[in-house]
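Researcher: Please predict.
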Amino acid sequence: MQRITKFFSDIAREMRKVSWPKRKELTRYTITVLSTVIFFALFFEVIDFGISKLIRLILE
C-alpha cells in the first residue's frame, strides 16, 4: 500500500514541475491543430474523390 501512495505522491510532485501553457498559447495551439486536421481531411477527401472517379472511368 505504501508503494502506491509513494507512486501517486511522486506523480503529484512531477505535475507541479510541468510548465503548463498559458491560455493564449493553448488557444493558438488548438487552432493550429484543428486547422491542420481540417486541411488534411479535405485534402484526402479530394484525393479519394479523384481516385474514385478515375477508377470508375477505367472500369466502365
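Model: The first helix runs from residue 2 to 17.
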